[in-house]
Write a structure and sequence with these properties.
4 copies of one chain form a homotetramer. By secondary structure, the first copy, chain A, is of the alpha+beta class. In chain A, 25% of the residues lie in helices and 24% in strands. The first copy, chain A, has 7 helices and 19 strands.
Amino acid sequence: MNTLGRLFRVSLFGESHGHGVGVLVDGVPAGIPFGVEDVQPELDRRRPGQSLLTTQRQEGDRVEIQSGVHEGRTTGAPVLMLIRNEGQRSQDYAKAPTVPRPGHSDYPARERFGGWNDPRGGGMFSGRLTACHVMAGALAQKLLDAHGVQVAAHTTRIGSIATPRTFTVAQIRETVERTPVRCADLDAAKAMEEEILQARAAKDSVGGIVECIVEGLPVGWGEPNADSVESLLAHAIFSVPATKGLEFGDGFRFAERRGSEASDPYYRDEAGRVRTRANHNGGILGGITTGMPLVFRVAFKPTSSIAVPQPTLDLATGEPTPLQVTGRHDPCIVPRAVPVVEGVARMVLADVLLMHAALRPREVKREW
Amino acid sequence: MNTLGRLFRVSLFGESHGHGVGVLVDGVPAGIPFGVEDVQPELDRRRPGQSLLTTQRQEGDRVEIQSGVHEGRTTGAPVLMLIRNEGQRSQDYAKAPTVPRPGHSDYPARERFGGWNDPRGGGMFSGRLTACHVMAGALAQKLLDAHGVQVAAHTTRIGSIATPRTFTVAQIRETVERTPVRCADLDAAKAMEEEILQARAAKDSVGGIVECIVEGLPVGWGEPNADSVESLLAHAIFSVPATKGLEFGDGFRFAERRGSEASDPYYRDEAGRVRTRANHNGGILGGITTGMPLVFRVAFKPTSSIAVPQPTLDLATGEPTPLQVTGRHDPCIVPRAVPVVEGVARMVLADVLLMHAALRPREVKREW
Amino acid sequence: MNTLGRLFRVSLFGESHGHGVGVLVDGVPAGIPFGVEDVQPELDRRRPGQSLLTTQRQEGDRVEIQSGVHEGRTTGAPVLMLIRNEGQRSQDYAKAPTVPRPGHSDYPARERFGGWNDPRGGGMFSGRLTACHVMAGALAQKLLDAHGVQVAAHTTRIGSIATPRTFTVAQIRETVERTPVRCADLDAAKAMEEEILQARAAKDSVGGIVECIVEGLPVGWGEPNADSVESLLAHAIFSVPATKGLEFGDGFRFAERRGSEASDPYYRDEAGRVRTRANHNGGILGGITTGMPLVFRVAFKPTSSIAVPQPTLDLATGEPTPLQVTGRHDPCIVPRAVPVVEGVARMVLADVLLMHAALRPREVKREW
Amino acid sequence: MNTLGRLFRVSLFGESHGHGVGVLVDGVPAGIPFGVEDVQPELDRRRPGQSLLTTQRQEGDRVEIQSGVHEGRTTGAPVLMLIRNEGQRSQDYAKAPTVPRPGHSDYPARERFGGWNDPRGGGMFSGRLTACHVMAGALAQKLLDAHGVQVAAHTTRIGSIATPRTFTVAQIRETVERTPVRCADLDAAKAMEEEILQARAAKDSVGGIVECIVEGLPVGWGEPNADSVESLLAHAIFSVPATKGLEFGDGFRFAERRGSEASDPYYRDEAGRVRTRANHNGGILGGITTGMPLVFRVAFKPTSSIAVPQPTLDLATGEPTPLQVTGRHDPCIVPRAVPVVEGVARMVLADVLLMHAALRPREVKREW
C-alpha cells in the first residue's frame, strides 16, 4: 500500500520508466496559496545531473498540478502532482529480469509480485519515486508556514568523513547549496566531495547520513504511543529507498550514556518560554514535541548499482553469473536525499498539525 | 491515536495507576489455538521485580482474556486482553503536576492535553503499556507459527559494554534467560550486569541496545514504499517509550561503507534455495523480505527517573527547583525491553503476513 | 474489522454470552466532563425487559469506565467502557451449531469463521453489541454539546402503522418516553403498541422504522465524495444488526418526484440566516451539512427469532428439520433501537466535528 | 477525504472543468490482465450524450492508464486511470459563485471550503467524478472474475413508473442495453422513457431507482459489525452524488412485515448446496454473504439543475433572486447511474474479496 498519513494523506504512484511518477495529496485545507513555483525549486534540488557527485542522467522533472488548485489556491479537493518521464534508457536494465542485482529489490520483488512487476529501472521501487516526497513536502510546507515551522536538512557524513558540528536551520540554509554535497560545514563538505569522487573513480559508491532540523514547532504536537511524532516520521522515512537507520536526538549514543548525562533540564528563557538546557531528546518526549528543535538523522546505504563486478545468480539457469551494473548511477545518493528527507519531514509534520487541530483540548485546566 | 497495524490491528489502552492496561486486537483469523498460557510466560519476562537490575515494584501482571476466544480457539472476534492494576503507590508521583521531570513527557503532555491527562505514574505514557505489546505479540506469534517464523531478541549493549558477536535465534534462546541482563553472549552479559549495578549504586541509570533476529521469513513478504517492512516495524518500535534509534542490518554503519563492501551477492545453497552470502541489508530489500534473517537494533535511552538531583522548573511558580525522582525505578530498562521488542516484531509481522495473504499474486509469471 | 470512524474511533468487542461487551473509543479530546452518569441513562433505554413490547430477559447493563477518564474529565487517552454479562441462559441457544436459524447469521458466520465463532447467543453478532453504540454515542454527545448539536430519534412505523407527522427534536423529547414504543405521535404510538402485542400473541415478530432528527448542525460540516456525511452515517448505521434500509430527507420518495417538486429554495430568515424553505434533502447537499435539520430513517427487519416453527436444515445430517426458536426474544426490536440509532448518529457526527476542526479552511475568501 | 476501501483502495480526484478526473487504485494484486479495453466500454455506458434521455453535452471520456500496468498485466503498483477534460463550457456556470443553486452543493460547499472550492461545473462535486467509480469497478471486476462473481444493475423506477418484476443477472444483461432507460423490463422501460421525455419537455427532471444484483458470491464473505458488506456498500453508494436512499433485500418493506413473512428458510438444492427458499435478506445476514444473490436498490433524486425558474438568494447582496439553470443537463440521471452503481458494487466486493483472503480461517472446525 502506498499511502502515508492519517489526514494529510500522501499517495505515491508511478514507475521509473512508465508514463511518469506522481503523488495524490488528500486532506489539504482549502485556501492555501500554492503553485508550480512552490514545488519546482525543491524538485530541482533532487533532480539528477546537478554535479559530478550524482548520476549524469538528465531528467527534467517538471511538475504539473492536475487537480485541487484553482486560481492559485488549494480548493480542498485532492491535489494531484505529476512528473512525466522523458529520456529513459530502458536497455540499461535489460538484464534485470533473470539476474537479480545484489542490494536491489529485484529478487524479493519478483517473488512478491509473481514476476509481474515492472522491471524497467526498478519500476515502483525506483529512487525516482522520491520526487513524490519532495512534491508532497512542498505543499505541506505551505501549511507549516502559517505556524512558523521551518525544516532544513544537510549531509553530516559521507563514508569516513563526518562533520562534528551542529547547525541551526538558518545556518544550514546559508551554506547548504554552496556545495554539491549539501553539507552545512563547508570544510567537511570539501572532504566529503572528495570521498564521493574517489568512490566514483573506483566505479564504486559510498553511503552517508542526512541530519534534519525542524525549528518553530510549538510544544504539545503529536500523540503518545502509536502515533508518536517519532513513529510517524519513522514510518515515512523508512518508506524512502536506501534508508537503513534513523535516530532522534542523541539516538544510538543514548545507549552508551547514563541518565544523568542525558538529561534535558527545564528553565525559563528571557522571553519567559519554557526551554531545556540541553536537547538530548531531539525535541520529542513521550512522542510529543517539546518546543525545542526536532533533530533526527537518517542513514543511507551506498548505491547498490555499482560498476564493480559482483557475483550473482541467473535465476533462469540457476547458474552463478557475474554482474556489472551499467547505466548512469549516483556514486552517492546522499546529496540528492537531502531535499527528500526535508520533504518527508514536512509531509509528516503537516499531518501532525492537522491531527493537533482536530484533537487538541477545547479547554485548558486552570489549576497550574 | 493508539492503533497499530492495517489488518492485524492492535489498540492499546489503560494507565499506569488507573484500573489497568490492556490491548484490543482485531483482524485475528478464527480457529487459532490461544489461551492465557501463551501470554503469561512472555508477560512474566517483562514484569518488574525480576532481579536487582530492574525496578523493585511488584506487579503481578496477570492477563485476562475477555473476548474473542472460545473453547481455546480464537473466534474471529476482536480479542481483548486486560491486566488489572494492583499495588500502585501514586504518592511517589505527587510532584508531577507542576514540576515536570526532565526527560519525561510531563511537560509536553500537559501542553498537549491541556493539563487533563492522568498524571499518576505517567498515565498513558507509562512504560507499563509495553505489556500490551507483549500480549499482542504473543497472539501474533500463534499466526507466525504456522509459517515457521521465529523471533528472538537480546541485549547487545549496556552503556560502555557491547557484545561484538552475532547470534542465531536458537543461540539466543539457549542462553538469554540465563542472565538477568538478557544478553546471549554470557561473557558480555556479566560485564553489562556490572554496568547496571554501578549505575544503580550511583542512583543513576544507563541505556542500551536490543537486537532482534527473525528467522523463517519467506521471500516476498511486505510492500515497497509506504508499507515497507521497515516502515511498519519502525512505526511500531518508535511507539515504545524510551526508543530513540532503529537500524536494519548494517544500519548506521552503511554510512561509512562503499557499495562494494556492503553487497549481498546471491547464490544457491545445497537445498537449492536462493540465499545471499552476506546479510548487510538485514533481510529486507526494497521493503520486502529476502528470505534471509531479518535483523534490527533498537536504541533505548537511560531511564529518565533517577535519584540524582536534577534542576528543573516549577511551572506553577515559574521558579527553578531541584528534582530528585523518588519511587522504585529501573536503573536500566533494557533487560525488560527485550520481550517488548519481540512482541512488537511479532505483531508487525503478523500484519505483514495477513497483508501478504490478501495481496499476493494469484498467478505466477512463467517465463523465469 | 470492528472500528468505525476516522478520528473519533469506536471499536466494538465482546460477545453475548462471554465476559461482556464493550467499546474502546480513541480520538477523544482531553478535558471533556464525562462519567457513568452520562452513559447509564441511555443504556437503560436500550436495555431489555422494559415493557411487554421487548424481550423479558433481564440484563443490568451497568457500564464501567475503565480508562481514559480521570477526576471526571477525559484525559485524551482511549476510553474503554465495559458491560459485564450476567444471567445469560446459553442453553436457549443449544441447537445453533448445526441447525442454522433462518434470518440469523448462524450459517454464513459458520462459513466465514470456519465454525470457530462463539455460537452462544449469536456471539459477536448479537444485538447486545448495540449497547456499544449507545455508550460511544453518550461520549460523542459531550463533544456535540459544545456546538449545540441535538439528536433525537423515534419510531415512525411498526408493521402497518405509521405516523404521517414530522417532529422537531424538542417535540420528540417531550413525548417519546411516554410510550413504550417510543413514537412521538402518541396516537400512532397506541396503535403501534397494539401491533406489537398482536405479533407477540401470535408468537411472531414485526419490523419498523426509526426516524432520526439532528438539529443545531452548522453549515459546512462533512466532505464531498468518500466521506460524505451520508456515507459515514450509512456505514455506521448498517453496522447495526437488523438494519436493512436507510434514506435521507425524502429518500425513496425522491424517485417518484420531479426536480421542481423536490427543490429546497434558499431564503434569509428574520435572524439573517440562510435557510431553505423546504428540507427535501434532509439537511445534506453534496455530502455536506446545509444548516437545516439532518433527517434520516432506518428500516429494521422483524426479529428473526420467532416461536413460529420454521423449516430449516440440519447441516450435520443434511436433513430438513423444523426449528422453533425458544428463549426470550423481542417481538419487535424497534423501540429498543431508538437509542441505538441516536448513539450511531452521535458517534458519526462527533467524528465529522473533529474532521471539520482539522480540515476547515484557515482563511475565508473575501469576494462574496 | 476521498478514499474508499480498506485493501482495494480507490482514491478519486479531479474536477468537472479542470484538467480532468481520475482514480488511483491501490491494493491491486499483480498479474491481473487489464487494459483500456476493459474500462472503455463501461465508461461509454456512463458518458453523456447517448440519447435524448440524457444531457446533450459531448464528453469523450477516454481513459488513459498511467501506472500500475505493464505489458497487459497489473504490476502490483498503484493503478492510475485518467480522463482528460475537453469541451467544457464554463460560462454555463457563471452565476454559481454568489447565487447558490437549490439542491446543489453550492452553498454548503462555499461554507465548507471558505469559498475556495472550484465552482466551475460543480468542481469536485460534479457527477463527472462518477466516471471514477466506473473505472475502478472495471478493474475490480477482473478480480471478481476469478471467483465467478457477476454484477448487473438496471433501472426499476422512474417517477411514477416502476417495474414489478425481478430479474437475474443474465436477464438484465440480455435486455438492459436495448433501451436508453436501462430497465430490463422492456414494457416498463417504454413507459419510463416517456416519463423522462415528459419531464424534459416541461424543462423539469425526474428521479428513479436502480436495482443491483450480484450473483456468484460464495458463502461467508464479509464481516460482522463495522465492516459488514452492507456497511461497505452503503459507504460507497452514498459517496455517489444524488443518492438519497439504499435498501438491501426487502429493505423498507421489512418494516411492514412480520417475522414469519420475512423468513428465508434453508434447504439443500439438487447440487447439494445450502440455499434459502426466499431471499428477503438480499443475500446478506449478519453482514456476511449467504451465497444467495446480493440485491440492493438505490434511490436517486431528480437532477437539481432544471430550467424551471426557482427562487433563491444572491449571497452577495442578501436579496432574493430567481434562478433558471441553463446549460446541458440530464432530465434524468438514472440511466447513466446504472453503470456507476455496478462500478461501486464491484469495487466494494473486490475489497471484500481481499479482506476475505487475509482474514479467512486457516483451518476449519471438524465437528459439523
